[in-house]
Amino acid sequence: MPSTPEVSVVVPTLARAALVTRAVRSALAQTVTDIEVIVVVDGPDEETGKALAEIGDPRLRVVELPAKGGAPNARNMGVREARARWTALLDDDDEWLPDKLAVQLEVARDAVVPSPIVASRLINKTPRAEFVMPRRLPEPGEPICEYLTLRRGLFHGDGFIQTSTIMAPTELLRRVPFTVGLRRQQELDWTVRATSHPDVDLVIAAEPLVLWHQDEDRPRISLSSPWQAQLEWLRGIRPLITPRAYAAITMSIISSMAAPTRSLRVFRLLLAEARRHGRPGFLDYLTFLQIWLIPPQLRHRMRDRILGRRNAAQDGQPAAGVAGQPAAGVAGQPAAGVAGQPAAGVAGQPAAGVAGQPAAGVAGQPAAGVAGQPAAGVAGQPAAGRPAVADQDGPDGRARSTETGADVRR
């Protein structure tokens, strides 16, 4: 293995040997081979150590921490071990498509600031459906915090970032470490804090490059965090976000954690919090009410049915989950990860999941968007064909790279 790899991959894990092995194999299968994969085991875990030793790849390093400190701490420890200029994050229950790092390195080369955060779309795989997120890319002048939190419909995922999509300069991840002790919204917290630095951009590759395995039917630590702790976190980052984003987080993320209390007092408290320190919109109130009135399992089933069908309709394919059929969201191609088949987003091919249209950034073609519409760019104009050099000035400007189809926020 070269002394300085091109990308370091950091994977925190604990007591999930089968899952982390799958994640690591997807990283080692990247078309970019000059990498190191650092698995940080968050405490003593003999089974995981044995499973990883069987992989037998010299690019894999395992760091076992003496005691459990949580995923943010494990990520920070992995970043300290990283030797490459770039570090890519991977959760132990997710997978990468083979060209993930290759696409992101190309996007990074086109970035207009020294420290770009390079994210991507992903394929959200729930027990009942598959669909691509985020459903849209940032618009010109849109604050990052609002892009990541405001809804344009009843379901989250219009704007979105997830840990396994993130590649960033190792120096930036050391300068702005993950918040130790935070159990939910770790990537949102980190992105908001990192993009408050003037040399940092958020860049989103239009292709889905990650398989996000969201098994909502099994217990997850991140879903059991007390709502009071999350509200304190939100109050702490209030100076970094807009009133619109503050209201959206309070009435969706915090409320989804508090709603199981069925407490009218808590309902009123969060509503007052959003109105006192934020600026709620109509969809925020609607989201707030549905979270408190509809059980989460029913909301998830409604989301999967509606979004899964929408993706299938865009691609002209049967809805995800039909035995023997391609999964929704893969534009007429076999589902990503099916043995022996090309995954979505293979180099030189149109990105999957966009109604049979070429990926964003193909010269002369509209960028991938929702339901056959151009992706967010100049209003009413296709994004393709714009120069890679930023033509928007100021803290909320954004440019599109015609080579990669990525949206750049600065």
From TrEMBL:
The keyword Glycosyltransferase applies. Residues 395-410 have a biased composition (Basic and acidic residues). Residues 8-132 form the Glycosyltransferase 2-like domain. It comes from Micromonospora craterilacus. Keywords: Glycosyltransferase, Transferase. Belongs to the glycosyltransferase 2 family. It comes from the Bacteria. This is Glycosyltransferase family 2 protein. InterPro entries: Glyco_trans_2-like, Glycosyltransf_2, Nucleotide-diphossugar_trans. Residues 313-390 have a biased composition (Low complexity). The keyword Transferase applies. Coiled coil: none annotated. One of its GO terms (molecular function) is glycosyltransferase activity.
